[in-house]
Specification:
The chain has helices at about 15-20, 30-40, 55-70, 80-85, 105-115, 130-145, 155-160, and strands at about 185, 190, 195, 200-205, 210-215, 220-230, 235-245, 250, 255-260, 270-275, 280. The chain contains 7 helices and 11 strands. It starts with 13 loop residues before the first helix and ends in a 9-residue tail after the last strand. Helix 2 (about 30-40) crosses helix 5.
């Protein structure tokens, strides 16, 4: 559904947006810890987010694994515990080039780092399958490399750099708090932020730009609007109930582009808001006031 065109601006006080911020942009965890969490998750010992943080939940899962393996239940990962994980844990990231068909600890670490650099590959599972291959190819193109679908030295060097961020500042599209943040969620990666809102609330463009998509998007997005802002930056507004713009429209920052809904794969009304930089998903909180 498309709403009647409107030139009215949706103006949110900047102070309100700052006060409603859930917190600072999330930091990337440790890839080796994430690979350990994947192994424990596969054994149904770890049910938290694959976030790369070695906290109490991860430590408790390690202790249970150690007890089952007949090892001292210290909760710390040592050589004996790593050895008990078998072939999965033999390779660390960087010890070999990775390509289709490879499996193990290093592949899980690769998947984790690719996700944080804007190119998630679905489930963190330590298996270099088609989706991981596609993510590697997209990242190679993003780096300006020949896309040979192999995570070799050049790809790994890129992944050692900080994750990308938006070169443009943005405004909050809604004056409502953040629910799910950008980052690991279960054994997958959430590539945007969810702003929890009643249905039908007007959604504002985060910055002036040109509408490059408006309508139904398959893959769980529902009704979506995408705006190109220049500099390779695009913002995506998903799960809308209706749009107020068409492809090709020029919009000002703060202009109404649609209304909050629950279309696509949504369990309730909210706005899924993404920021992409040359195709890489980046944390929107890093570009928003108070983020």
């Amino acid at each position: 559904m498309r709403l009647p065109p409107s030139s009215a601006r949706v103006l949110w006080p900047a102070l309100l947006a700052v006060l409603l911020t859930a917190g600072l942009a999330r930091a990337e965890g440790n890839a080796d810890t994430a690979a350990l969490q994947v192994a424990l998750h596969e054994r149904s010992l770890y049910l938290g987010d694959v976030d790369g943080y070695y906290g109490p939940v991860t430590s408790a899962a390690v202790q249970e694994f150690q007890r089952r393996a007949g090892l001292p239940a210290t909760g710390n990962l040592g050589p004996l515990t790593r050895g008990a994980l078998g072939a999965y844990a033999r390779r660390t990231l960087g010890s070999r080039s990775l390509r289709f068909g490879k499996t193990g600890w290093d592949v899980a670490a690769l998947q984790f780092q690719l996700a944080w650099h804007g190119f998630p590959s679905g489930v963190f599972d330590g298996i270099f399958g088609w989706r991981t291959q596609a993510a590697v190819v997209r990242y190679e193109r993003w780096l300006g490399l020949f896309p040979d679908a192999i995570a070799g030295s050049a790809v790994l060097a890129g992944l050692r750099s900080p994750p990308p961020h938006s070169p443009l500042t943005l405004a909050w599209p809604l004056p409502f708090p953040v629910g799910d943040e950008f980052g690991p969620r279960g054994d997958r990666f959430h590539t945007g932020i969810d702003l929890i809102s009643p249905p039908g609330v007007p959604v504002a463009a985060a910055r002036s730009g040109r509408v490059v998509y408006a309508g139904w998007r398959e893959g769980g997005w529902g009704i979506e609007v995408t705006i190109a802002h220049g500099g390779g930056v695009r913002t995506i507004y998903a799960h809308l109930s209706a749009t107020a713009v068409s492809v090709g429209d020029r919009v000002d920052g703060g202009a109404m582009i649609g209304r909050v809904g629950a279309t696509g794969d949504a369990t309730g009304p909210h706005l899924h808001f993404e920021v992409r930089v040359r195709g890489a998903a980046v944390d929107p909180l890093g570009a928003l006031p108070g983020g």
